[in-house]
UniProtKB/TrEMBL annotation:
Residues 294-350 form the AFP-like domain. One of its GO terms (biological process) is carbohydrate biosynthetic process. It comes from Candidatus Wildermuthbacteria bacterium RIFCSPHIGHO2_01_FULL_49_22b. The lineage of its organism: Bacteria, Candidatus Wildermuthiibacteriota. Gene3D superfamilies: Aldolase class I, Antifreeze-like/N-acetylneuraminic acid synthase C-terminal domain. This is N-acetylneuraminate synthase. GO terms for molecular function: N-acylneuraminate-9-phosphate synthase activity. PROSITE patterns: AFP_LIKE (PS50844).
């Protein structure tokens, strides 16, 4: 059974789902917005807030590459390089943001694009490494990340299971603190595209790895299903306002929805409870006594009279002889007079 810690939080079976509020690039390059997002995530009760750290020139190959997304129902096309440049943060801003998150008592980390980005993040004290789906097949980089011994959370969007295998086999020899997240890299992903049963596949394939879900669908339905299927890490995009311009705002949760997500995940976890089939504590035991039925004389029965379905029947409460004994008693005789409404006792029947 895989477990490991990020900060003071333990991830894995037997522990609450680790909820990551994914800010990503939804700060739009503005440190003030990024800090407000920290406030929102902390107030919502998320365990961590996560951003994305990169230099545009190290992500996109040429200036000509374009990105298309919908903003307020309209298709927007713009330079991918230009978009990424507009949302870059400088080292001093990352340092200030990390310190701000620490003051708000929420874990802070970010997805690096390469080892220099990770070294910078380690310098400001991130407690974990998040690897995006786009880097799942960058095995040399995964090996470098793993050697830092920081806990790793790796998304698996767009991947074949064989590629997930390669990534896991690359990381585990260097670092046992690993979570893999089922992910569908569509923005947004529709419900019929989510294939949440892959969570069960990952749990079966990797018993020594924590399994979770990185969600790009709308709303909170899919995360709750994922938790029911055993996801122990949950990553969900959020924004201050879905009306803001950018590729990831439109499908993200807003502040009140993020609070609702955290609350409902905790309710879902509480609802899962135990797999043991038995009454639930004293309250249900009391209800059992009041609601179940006992065998009762529905009319006066004289000594020597046979027990029939006409003179004995099940009635509330369930504090007497259970109805299952009726078939055993049919045809037997009363050893004493039994008054109507009296509970039937075995010693009164022969």
């Amino acid at each position: 059974m895989a477990t490991f810690k990020i900060g003071k939080r333990t991830l894995g079976e037997g522990h609450p789902c680790f909820i990551i509020a994914e800010a990503g690039i939804n700060h739009n390059g503005d440190l003030k917005i990024a800090k407000k997002m920290v406030d929102v995530a902390a107030k919502a009760g998320a365990d961590a807030i996560k951003f994305q750290t990169f230099k545009a020139e190290e992500v996109v190959n040429t200036q000509e590459e374009m990105i298309a997304y919908r903003h307020q129902g309209k298709l927007v096309k713009e330079s991918f390089m230009g978009l990424l440049r507009s949302v870059e943060l400088a080292y001093k801003e990352w340092r200030e943001l990390a310190a701000y998150a620490k003051a708000k008592d929420i874990l802070f980390f970010s997805t690096p694009q390469n080892m220099p980005d990770l070294r910078m993040l380690m310098k400001i004290g991130v407690p974990a490494i998040k690897v995006g789906s786009d880097d799942l097949t960058c095995l040399p980089q995964l090996a470098e990340y793993a050697k830092t011994r920081l806990p790793m959370i790796v998304s698996t969007g767009m991947a074949y299971l064989s590629e997930v295998d390669e990534a896991v086999r690359t990381i585990l020899p260097h670092n046992p603190k690993l979570a893999v997240l089922h992910c569908v890299s569509l923005y947004p992903a529709e419900f019929e595209e989510l294939n949440l049963r892959r969570i069960e596949t990952l749990k079966s394939a990797y018993p020594n790895v924590v399994v979770g879900f990185s969600d790009h669908s709308r709303g909170i339905t899919a995360p709750l299903v994922a938790v029911a299927l055993g996801a122990k890490v949950l990553e969900k995009h959020f924004t201050l306002d879905r009306g803001m311009k950018g590729p990831d705002h439109g499908f993200a949760l807003e502040s009140d929805e993020l609070r609702q997500l955290v609350r409902e995940v905790r309710n879902a976890e509480a609802s899962l409870g135990s797999s043991v089939v038995e009454p639930v504590g004293e309250r249900e035991l009391k209800e059992r006594k009041e609601s179940q039925r006992s065998l009762v004389a529905v009319k006066d029965i004289t000594k020597g009279e046979k027990i029939t379905k006409e003179n004995v029947a099940p009635r509330r409460p369930g504090t007497g002889l259970p109805p299952k004994f009726l078939l055993y008693l049919l045809g037997k005789k009363a050893t004493r007079d039994i008054k109507a409404h009296e509970f039937i006792r075995l010693e009164s029947i022969q």
